[in-house]
Each structure stands twice: as C-alpha cells, then as structure tokens.
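Researcher: We are triaging several targets before committing to wet-lab work. For this one, the compound of interest is guanosine-5'-triphosphate. I'm pasting the protein sequence and the ligand SMILES. What I need is the predicted three-dimensional arrangement of the protein with the ligand bound, expressed as structure tokens, so it can go straight into our comparison scripts without reformatting.
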Amino acid sequence: MLDTIAAISTAFGKGALSIVRMSGSEAIEIANKVFRGKNLKKVKSHTVHYGHIINENKEIIDEVLVTVFKAPKTFTREDVVEISCHGGIFVTNKILELLLSSGARLAEPGEFTKRAFMNGRIDLTQAEAVSDLIEARTQSSLKMANMGLRGDIRKLIESFRSDILTCIARIEVNIDYPEYEDEEEITTGLLIPIITKLLKSIDEIIEKSETSQIIKEGIDTAIIGKPNVGKSSLLNSLLRQNKAIVTNIAGTTRDVVEGVVNVGGVILNLIDTAGIRETKDVVERIGVEKTKEVLKDAQLVILVFDYSSELEPQDLELLESTKDKTRIIVINKSDLNKKIDLSVFDDYILISTFNHEDIEKVENKIKEITNISDITEIDSTYIGNARHIAKLKEAKRHLESGLSSAEVGEVIDMINIDLTLAWQALGEIIGENNPEALLDELFSKFCLGK
Ligand SMILES: Nc1nc2c(ncn2[C@@H]2O[C@H](COP(=O)(O)OP(=O)(O)OP(=O)(O)O)[C@@H](O)[C@H]2O)c(=O)[nH]1
Ligand SMILES: [Mg+2]
C-alpha cells in the first residue's frame, strides 16, 4: 500500500488562507492526531469540520476548517484530508511539519496527480491537462486544458484506437479462425479505404497541433535592428511597462531582455536584443553574438529601422538575412524628419513608439501574421502537448507503412503489425500500452463463442 503524502497546496507566501492537503490510507488518522474538534474518524465523507490544530504540547497552532474526503470518490481515489488554515508562512509550515511528524511523508511535485493517474481516476492526458491548466496564460489555452481535463482528448484517441482495433480484430479472426464464416474475409483491398480514412483524420489533428502549440507555448519573437532605432522602446510599449533601459546612446542594450505579452489571445515571448553592429566593446560584442543566436531560433522577427536616418549596409544585410523568416518590418520614429529610403521595403508599418495607436498597428499586424484570429473556435481536436503530437506522428508513420504494404498487396499479417504498432503508439498518449490490454479488448469486441 502507498504511504500517506502531505503538502501545502496553495501558493507559497502570505495570503488570507492556505490549504494543506494529505492523501493516503492514514490521512484521516494522522489529521485526527493533530486536530481538536470532532473525532474525524467518525465523520461522514465530504464534510467540513471546524476546530483547532494543536502541537505536541497541546498548544493551539491555528483555528482551521478540515474537509474529509473518503476513498474512492476523491481526486486521488484515496482518503484525502484538506486543512484550510490562516495563510501565514509560519503557521502553514508548522501544520505541515506536524503532519509529517505524525506519520505523513512530504509529497513530491505532482504526486497527488500521479496518484490520481495510478489509481485510475484520470488517464495520462487528463493528468497532463492538470499542469496545462495551472500553466495556462490565455483564455484559449485554458479552454484547451479544460478539454483535456474533461477527457475529450482521451475520447478522441480512444475512438481512433477502437477503429484500428476493429481492423486488427477482423484480421485476427481471418487468420485464427478461417472457418468462421459470419465474418466477411478481410482483404488488403478492404483495408485500404479504412486506413486512408484514419490517416486523414490523424493528419487533420497534426495540422492543427501547430496552432495548438502556439496557443499554449506562445511565439518566440525577437526584436532586431541596428543600435538606437528604438527596439527597447518598442518592447516597453508592447509590454506597457518600462522593462528595458532606453537611452539615446547607441549600444544601450547589451544583454537580451525578455517579456511576455498577450496580443489578442496570442502569447508572444518577446526578446529585445542588442543592436547589431561591428563593435570593439567586449560586452557589446557578446551581446551582438547573442542577438544572432536569438535571431536563429526566433519564430517571429520584428525588424526595426529608423525613419530619421539613412539606411546603412548593416540594415540591408539584416533585411537580406531575415528574408526567409516570418517577419514584420517596423519603421520607427515617424515623428521625426524622413531620411530613410522606403522603396527598399515591400511591406512595412510606419510608427512612433511614443504613439499608442501605432503600437496597436503593430499588434494588429502580429495578429494578422500569426493567423490565429479564430482561436475562440477551439475544439477537442486541438492537441498542444508535444508528447501527444510526437505519438500521433508515430502512429501516422505506422499507418502509412501499413497503407503502402496494402497497396502493393503485401500479406495481411504484415499490415497487421503496422496497425498494432499504431494502436500502441496511440495508447501511449493515454498511458495505456500493454499487449495484454490488446488481447482483452480484442476479445471483448468479438464474441466468438469458442
Ligand atoms: N523621436 C523618437 N525617438 C524615439 C522613438 N522611439 C525611441 N526613440 C528614442 O530613441 C532612442 C533609442 O531608443 P532605444 O529604445 O533605447 O533603442 P534601441 O534600439 O533599444 O537601442 P540599443 O539598445 O542601443 O540597440 C531613445 O532616446 C528613445 O527615446 C520614436 O518613436 N520617436
Ligand atoms: Mg535597446
């Protein structure tokens, strides 16, 4: 049997209330040892009790509410006790200490959720959705996490698996019971349209996964340009916060400065960089090298030029070196006199970072270019978890291999192997992957009466 775990479940720090949570077969017993009020061993499940937490010397530590949840209808499917106490750091820690000295063990990060998974209360996708929910930074990523939590992804994957399993089952019947005539004999010809249809659905999901990941992780966006063009000013305006230092001295930003901003539901991980130029200054030179690294990894580049000065060779170099990147060209300092030759640019936005409306122009351009205007339309086929996507791609590869075997008229056993591998890869998404499960499911589907 698993031991009883305890942890502070609320954010660490000062707050009005904190919750200390315990899970395990001893949870109620341990809580009872430190609680003065009702006998918690005699209370009903899902009830709340007022009382005090007392220490070894019977001194009162805090006035609390204790909620008792008895297995199995709990988050972990074990007995769970939650102690709501006053939110001071000292008090909360003291209560946790008391629980630990009374027989509980400090929980590892995520261990409550892990137990919920181990005890079959939730599947892997739901467990992962718990952390996605906590990490969610926009309405859409919250929606995605909630769909995962509700089990929508599991249902989707299960329906794929069930379709594949039906194929496998029919093949197995053909091979093992050739005399069984109720079942139409499955041929490679019959398999081709079935696998093709499956592949089409998986493809659609993989295609959407790129958008899903953007929704979840955000877009790594680098602000690049010559020194003094206003990169840090643009960062600050987008963040609506003076995060980066701005001065009229070229070469102000030496290191990368980062900030996160939500532009119409799209998270941008903004990176302000040192202006690119040849320099003898050691620190600045390292900064410029870093900028080049950032530029390589960026998913979106905001190139900034100065309206009030003439283009220089390094401006043109930047234009050339980013031409294959997804980029937005911003010409800044439109409030000053024009010196720049705009004929070099195909598409640009003219702004002054001093002007709020101009910042909105930049934001609109970002929305347009990232093309995620319809993120309210998210459904459960948006899968943003990198592990899930990798497994979907693996399943896709096996199905493709099965399809090409079927097309060249390979023996049906060979196709069966590919189908089984695809079924297994999908199983790993929901944390179910053992060959016995395949047999169990197979026989529950087909009652051969033998
Ligand atoms: N007139 C005018 N000045 C601006 C504008 N935006 C920024 N500046 C000024 O330009 C100077 C440089 O701005 P920064 O944001 O530090 O420029 P940077 O590109 O980050 O410069 P480095 O960090 O040195 O590469 C500062 O004095 C800003 O106040 C603008 O739209 N109009
Ligand atoms: Mg700067």
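Researcher: Any quick observations?
Model: Residues 231-232, 244, 252-253, 272 surround magnesium ion (ligand 2) (CB under 6 Å).
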